[in-house]
Amino acid sequence: MDVLLDDATRRMRDALAAFLDRSVRPAEPVYQAQLAAQDDPWHWTAPPVLADLQAQAKELGLWNLFLPGDEGAGLSSVEHAPLAELAATSPIGPAAINGSAPDTTVMELLAAYGTPAQKHRWLEPLLDARTRSAVASAPVGTSIVREGEEYVVSGLQPAVLGALNPDARIFVVTGETDPSAAPGRRLSRLLVPRCADGLSVHRSTHVVGGREDVQPGGLAVLVLDEVRVPVANLLGDEGDSAVLDHPRVGVERRRTG
Fold first, then answer.
1. CB-based contacts of 128: which residues, under 8 Å, 6+ apart?
2. Alpha carbon distance 257, 2 (integer Å)
3. What's the CA gap between 181 and 188, in Å, rounded?
4. Which domains can be identified in the chain, with CATH numbers?
5. Which of 142, 226, 237, 245 is most buried, by CB atoms within 10 Å?
6. At how many degrees (to 10) do helices 247-256 and 103-113 cross?
7. In the prediction, which pLDDT does 247 show?
8. Where is 168: in which H helix or E strand?
9. pLDDT in tens, 174-215
């Protein structure tokens, strides 16, 4: 990507390139062998070599580069773009620097709009790569109904990236909270823990072309059968789904004031 970079970002890009060449690319066959030896091939964050690479990335300051706020490297979208492009030249490059989807989206959402309690419980472990996450963003047929101090969530979310990974502990679920509200204010986003009663994760069947999906983390069908979560798990306010569609913008605005 041909963009003008300041000296600090250029040095970070050079450091990332050296890390990829020295440590990440040579580890690719090791990662594949360790992944193939696991009982659960969907547990793609478990190979020990990935943890070793992540420890190196932290020491080098090549960690959470995607996040523009205080929790991340403080880079703008323009500064981060060539680094993301470079990391993606290795299939395990983004994971090595904690820059994998869908976790980046979830971390940006929590950084921009999460409450202090939400950040402590879910953002901090994600920033440290101790847990994973998933985004269930198909609202059609998913209802979020308030009952007292709880929301009751029911519906089916297809093709949820990352949900098959047992390290995914939190799901950002989009659903309808007020069908009578004005367009753009009917949907909300809720943090639903994997351990919630009534939530079940099912392996997807086949994707377009008849090929079973084997990408890291996999695709899953998420079933929510009257799942109850505290009202405190709401991201933003009711009807804020459209506002939350651009979490990085929210972080950058918060940073600049």
1. none
2. 29
3. 12
4. 7-100 (1.10.540.10), 132-256 (2.40.110.10)
5. 142
6. 40
7. 61
8. strand 168-176
9. 999 999 999 889 999 999 999 999 999 998 755 555 444 444
